[in-house]
Here is the input.
Amino acid sequence: MKRFLDFALPDFDGTELDSVLAALKSGWITTGSKVRQFETSFASDIQARHCIAVNSCTAALHLALEAAGVQDGDQVLTTPYTFAATAEVIRYFGAKPVFVDVRPDDLNIDAELIPSAVTDRTKLIIPVHIAGLPCELDTIAMLAAGYGLTIVEDAAHAFPASYRDRKIGQGVVDSQDYFTCFSFYATKTITTGEGGMIATNSDEWAERCRIMSLHGISKDAWKRYSAEGSWYYEIIAPGYKYNLTDIAAAIGLAQLAKADRMWERRKYIAERYHEAFRDMPELQIPHDRDDCQHAWHLYMLRLHLNTLKIDRAEFIEEMKRRRIGTSVHFIPLHIHPYYRETYGYKPMDFPVAYTEYLREVSLPIYSKMSDEDIERVIAAVRDVVAKNRRTSVSLQAS
Here is the structure.
């Protein structure tokens, strides 16, 4: 029996181990010089003015909303086609997530629907760069400026990605303050095991996020046990325990050094999948755009269910029988019990998000995959389709 091909695996070599060992041997394993080095290197890579490393993208989003002044009773626009963290951080403040449906081509937030969702209580907008393909940021930035909204980009999937020659994390226009929040979770394009990063061009917001990430303690609290530090500190706000460790940052530095090589491999895998599936009427390959660099964190295939005798769940089971791991991105938030029961949402309140979810299946796409792995995935998909393809007669009947 062939080995099971995991849906996602990190791409580690000896560099991560060497970097972690160096951190361990230094005797400083919590937030320290490695974290600052990681922040500086990441900021240079994405051309951001400030980067603040934290222990998750969820923490990054939370701190961004806190710095932007979100309060009880505010409303925050975002998409239902995302992971739990995007909306749950809004609820941390007693604010209301207001969902805006997605576009059928790329599953990113539909900017044309944003104006109808804005009220006098709307504070900010969280666009999600789904799968690593950037949203229409120019339109979103124009709308945000017109309505006086802050932009907090959920870029958990979007490193390294770019939009119209600007890196995701650099901001849309130089004159507009923003936040961009990245994830370094185990399955992401680079990983620290658990971790995240906040990028912003605002000196004030960067300072607030840094202070609030470590108990609301005054500037450079992490140095207080070092030769350069002082025992004295002041708590200026009730903050959080969101700091990244030097051990995690050491992994991140090794990953960042080979991020371009890993992206090139994912791009190659996406191109192979495109070639293999483009002419199959049962399948819809992911959307891409010429004005963007897609990060290819996910390869979100969609099934034309009227051409198949099986549904999406059965397709996944068929792939599992062929020893191939897959996943679904995402179960829309508005159909989960909490949001359904709290706000009374029904599945078709956001028809594009719901109907596209029913036919989406994500294929493995990570740089550690061998050429043989890629061909196994292609062969499995083609075999499942071939064995479950409707005939022309049954198509007419349906």
